UniProtKB/TrEMBL annotation:
Protein name, UniProt field: Beta sliding clamp
Complex formation: Forms a ring-shaped head-to-tail homodimer around DNA.
Domain of life: Bacteria
Residues of the DNA polymerase III beta sliding clamp C-terminal domain: 244-370
GO molecular function, one term: DNA-directed DNA polymerase activity
Cell location: Cytoplasm
Location of the DNA polymerase III beta sliding clamp N-terminal domain: 1-118
GO cellular component entries: cytoplasm; DNA polymerase III complex
GO biological process: DNA strand elongation involved in DNA replication
Record-linked SUPFAM superfamilies: DNA clamp
Length: 373
């Protein structure tokens, strides 16, 4: 292999690809990047066996070839070389890099040991608008579980049916659901994708107008792609909980209020809630709610937030107080695009429905904290 490549393009791609490597001792090649030169472009690929990335950049090719090189070494090296043209050639299992006033040799490994990964997007892929998909993920990913003992909850459930993509996440204490319209899609499937892969997706393809999406059920793998990159992810095996069972179908108390005012009140309460198991209380009145927090160590506070309150079930005939983890409230409120929210309540111990009044396709549920009586 003998090529010329711009340091700026090479360094950027190496940095991205390096995030997909693995340091598993039993498979040292997973710590390497695959470099393959052909037809005036360079393939830079990496995989950790769960996700993989294939990036293409334009280069001048004098001689085609391929090699795998330690990602960390190559990334650190190239990122510190001055901008400009780099000359790269390969001798057996060694890569030589030269630029003005600099030269280096890095030991690599034969590319035959590198796992086979997807390099092209199948023709049957469908397109998703990047803006809408990225927005949906920002409203979903924060509710994914970190509990590795329940693998299905460490990913996002994606259901494709009747021209719609439904994205769902839950950690057992809260649940997010977002629906995206994809009218041109006729295929139907249900799968769970890892949080990390979807998080990388929003970073990688942020500048693209559309993202190609393809599901290979034989390989149990999903592919996302744009013109110069393919991201592949394994599907998480296991059964996602029957989330529809916990979605409230009605409410006895509906509260409409300003998102920013509630977020400000929650942030004020969090100053003391941090010392009290993150618990904040909502006391619902006829035309407002009071957001309260109290700590035996640091003090207390109360903030009144004006609201429109619909007492459908007559529950305000007596005191109505409900408690939440303030971090869950902050995560939800920070995910909103609209200015106003609706909160649907039934009783202090039942799941609570949170809605963005300007986005009927987004729904969030939080389990309240059970108060001692």
């Amino acid at each position: 292999m003998k090529i010329e490549v711009l340091q700026e393009n090479f360094s950027k791609s190496l940095y991205i690809a390096s995030r997909f490597t693995s340091s598993k001792v039993q498979l040292p090649v997973l710590a390497n990047l695959l470099l393959k030169a052909e037809k005036n472009r360079l393939l830079i690929a990496a995989t950790n066996l769960e996700t993989s990335i294939s990036l293409y950049i334009g280069i001048k090719v004098e001689e085609e070839g391929e090699i795998t090189v330690p990602a960390r070494t190559l990334n650190e090296l190239v990122s510190n070389i001055r901008a400009g043209q780099l000359k790269i050639d390969v001798e057996k299992e060694k890569i030589n890099i030269k630029s003005e006033g600099f030269e280096s040799s890095v030991l690599g490994m034969n590319s035959s040991d590198f796992p086979k990964i997807p390099l092209v997007l199948p023709e049957d892929n469908f397109k998703i608008q990047t803006e809408f998909f990225s927005q949906a993920l920002s409203q979903i990913l924060f509710a994914v579980s970190q509990d590795e003992t329940r693998p299905a909850l460490t990913g996002v459930l994606i259901i494709c049916s009747k021209g719609k993509l439904t994205l769902v996440s839950t950690d057992g204490f809260r649940l997010s659901q977002k629906i995206i319209s994809v009218p041109e899609v006729k295929t139907e499937f249900k799968l769970i994708l890892p949080k990390n892969a979807l998080g990388e997706l929003t970073r990688l393809f942020a500048e693209a107008e559309d993202i190609g999406f393809s599901f290979n059920d034989k390989e149990n793998q999903v592919l996302f792609g744009v013109s110069n990159a393919i991201l592949a992810s394994r599907v998480i095996e296991g059964d996602f909980p029957d989330f529809k069972r916990i979605i409230p179908t009605s409410s006895l108390l509906n509260i409409y209020l300003d998102k920013d005012e509630l977020l400000r009140a929650v942030k004020l309460a969090s100053v003391f809630a941090r010392d009290a198991a993150n618990v904040v209380k909502f006391s619902v009145l006829k035309d407002s709610i009071e957001v309260l927090a109290e700590s035996s160590q640091s003090g207390s506070q109360k903030t009144k937030v004006d609201a429109k309150v619909e007492d459908v079930g007559g529950v305000l005939d007596k005191e109505f107080v409900i408690a939440f983890n303030f971090r869950f409230l902050e995560d939800f409120l920070n995910s909103l695009n609209g200015d106003d929210i609706k909160i649907g309540l039934t009783d202090p111990n039942s799941p609570v429905l949170f809605l963005d009044t300007s986005d009927k396709e987004y729904m969030h549920i939080i389990m309240p904290v059970r108060l001692q009586t």
